[in-house]
Amino acid sequence: MNNSNLPPLNWLRAFESAARHLSFTQAAAELNLTQSAISQHVRSLEGFLGRELFIRRTRALMLSEAGANYLPTVREAFDLLAHGTQAMTRGDRGKSIILQCNMAFSVFCLAPRLHNLHAAFPWLRLNIVTPIWDPERHAEHANVEIRFGRPAEMSENAIPLPRDRFYPICHPDYQQGQIDLETATLMDCSGIMGNWETWYKSQGKPFNRANEVHLSSTYSVSISAALAGAGLAMAHDTLVVDLLQSGQLIRPFDHRPELLEAYHIIPPASHADTPATRAFMSWMAEEFLNRDFDA
Questions:
Q1: In this model, does residue 91 exceed pLDDT 70?
Q2: DSSP of 80-139, one letter per residue?
Q3: In terms of Cα–Cα distance, which of 152, 106, 109, 108 is closest to 126?
Q4: Cα–Cα distance between 288 and 40 in angstroms, integer?
Q5: Cβ atoms of residues 196 and 249 within 8 Å
Q6: The whole model's pTM is what?
Q7: What domains, with CATH codes, occur in the chain?
Q8: Which of 229, 261, 246 is nearest to 135 (CA)?
Q9: What's the family (predicted)?
Q10: Alpha carbon of 5 to those of 10, 24, 48, 49, 78: distances in Å?
């Protein structure tokens, strides 16, 4: 089969959901995407097919003739995929879960607590995937997602975790405990608003070492390097509070501005809910939703 003749699955999912609800807004809520993402997926599908699938009016959305003719084919394809997948998993879907979250959250926050999850739900099998970039591209394969980003970028059903503050951290013995910001090795995760420059500016100070900061695509690298005594790494509460409490890391400066990004739990759509996702969501609520980083 020539896959170039097939549109991407996420375009089809957006079309099917929007056609079922006759609403881009409701489709966005169901698929844990923004309304603009649903609209773009549908536009892309229409461009691929060379046909308009919807009649768009100011306060209404209707299927065009082409859309009405195409919808049964799409639904039949999804039904076939669902039956085939169910056969492959041998009915185990209700006991396993695919969780998508970033590498640093998995390593520093989730992994140290998995023994609690296994003790509470010994029957649950957790599979963790950790894309670094473009999480939305991979999210369709996950049952539950923990996404890091600005609240305005999240879907309506995203559940925010407690807000973080960000600050430099290091090994207790780094620079013999006499931290000098002018000579210290500075490390950070790229693409984050809570960075070294923001930390300096929030104190009304200029930051003159931007070209000297060592960057990585995940906090797993910079925080691990700090644990090994390599320098000062910018971090935030969710990832390092346990390491600070255990004494493996220290926070040498008091200044802790609020991080603009936040972690959010994106639950499954109601029709995709399973015993495993319900168990995991209840465990996440107990472990994370009531954390107080300022206590």
A1: no
A2: HHHHHHHHHHTT-GGGEEEEEE-HHIIIIIIGGGHHHHHHH-TT-EEEEE--SS-HHHHH
A3: 106
A4: 34
A5: no
A6: 0.68
A7: 3-89 (1.10.10.10), 93-163+261-289 (3.40.190.10), 166-246 (3.40.190.10)
A8: 261
A9: Belongs to the LysR transcriptional regulatory family.
A10: 15, 25, 9, 10, 17
| Per-residue pLDDT band at 138 (split at 50, 70, 90) | very low
**82 token code pair:** 């669902």
Residue 110 is encoded by which pair of tokens?
Answer: 């989730």
Q: Is the pLDDT of residue 139 over 60?
A: no
The two most distant CA atoms of the chain are separated, in Å, by 74
Pair of tokens at residue 291: 């954390």
CB 226 within 8 A of CB 233: yes
Q: Which two tokens stand for residue 137?
A: 């591209």
Beta strand pairing status for 166-169 and 60-63?
A: unpaired
